[in-house]
Specification:
With 495 residues, the chain is mainly α. The protein is built from 18 helices and four strands. The structure holds glutamic acid and aspartic acid.
Amino acid sequence: MITKQDIVQSVPQKGFFGHPKGLLSLFFTEFWERFSYYGMRAILLYYMYYELNQGGLNLEQSTANSIMAVYGSLVYMSGIIGGWIADRLFGTTKTVFYGGIAIMLGHAVLALPGGLTTLFISMALIIIGTGLLKPNISSIVGDLYSDNDVRRDSGFSIFYMGINMGAFLAPLIVGTIGLNYNFHLGFGLAAIGMFFGLVVFMVTKKKYLGLAGSYVPNPLAKEDRKKVFSRILIGFAIVALIGYFLIQQGIMTIDLFTMIVSILGIVIPTIFFIVMYRSSKTNADEKSRVLAYIPLFISAMVFWAIAEQGSIILAQYADQRTDLTIGSWEISPAWFQSLNPLFIIAFAPLFAWLWVRLGERQPSTPKKFALGLFFAGSSFLVMIIPAYLNGTDTLVSPYWLVLSFFLVVMGELLLSPVGLSATTKLAPGAFAAQTMSLWFLTSAAAQAINAQVVKLYNPETEIMYFGVIGAIAIVLALVLFLSAPIIQRYMRGVR
Ligand code: GLU
Ligand code: ASP
């Protein structure tokens, strides 16, 4: 049996900005994985709705928007499967590797010219691959440090920088090549990015990661394997058969599929909460914390719903409603996707400093969530102004989008880093292995809702659209802020 101490001792404890060397492997692997993901997302929407003569698939705008959200939702929903596979079958390192391969293949498929079929095959591979990779690579970060290591939180912050550096560079490179030359070349670059990530991981894994992620935490007993595998296989076969039949009969349309994902996005977290609350392994304090986590989950969900529309609605806005010439310079609509990660990189240190500076006086977790949500709401409310001032027939200054992305990032910096750690502390001990997946479910649920919501946007509905969503977020933020002391009480000592 490998103990936590064995793992920590097997990892060179210094060598990467005063952090364990393993962090370097994880940092660059995740850098490249996010480079491929956000590079692909920066051009995918345009690829779907651009006309055939522009190299696109000529899908209807609202369908393309909806597919972006469904895709985003499934990418994070599949984390549950990835978490389970690592926990019970392969351990995290192997699972991350398999995930990387699937992701790389997924992008490579899109690099080939093809239509809707190749798009869906690529999506399936990337959904599975990201589910295998993303939650598990984040949990290896936690494995590198002993439980009382004070560097742990800053380790996660460095890792978060890696994520955002990848997300920052990708739209500039993949976006430019994809839009100015050829979409498939862009997707090819995303595949190459993931390839680099896999190389880094393979080359540095043995030396830097030691035993971290190499063991199976809760292995499936030999005698159970057969039963579990056959059930999974049968389940899979039934779903595939029904799916095939429904597609054949023309019953399964993109709209129906979208609806199913939207429902799953809400049902899965609900089941999660019920199971955690009712489990006999959950004690009274933990039950109370599960209840406290519900309003936080909902707020994070609404936050991500707005933030994730940055690559859907605001991307459409960048392309269709924004004046893209600055002086004699023509900017690419894809570049706006670099703003979020750029602001994260620029302002994360400021927030870190602020929390240290405020020490005990810093806002509680529920209050940080409320403030985060407030900023998200205001990022939509400001988008009312250009249409209000000039109508929707003229192009508007790109700085409106810059402002909107800036505001959402202020919210992201308040909510996202504390969100993961709050999940870790509030989830019952018996569910520790699922914590990462539970946090990613906030994004999955958010985008499941978006899949319906984003269909409603068009320049005619613009003021209403941004106004109503922004207002809902702000009202919810106020309610959360006012109920923060109550939630805090239910958190039973967790801060
Ligand atoms: N943008 C972050 C990432 O890609 C956050 C993801 C999320 O929780 O939605 O890792
Ligand atoms: N800020 C996002 C995340 O932390 C990246 C993005 O939206 O581009 O990775």
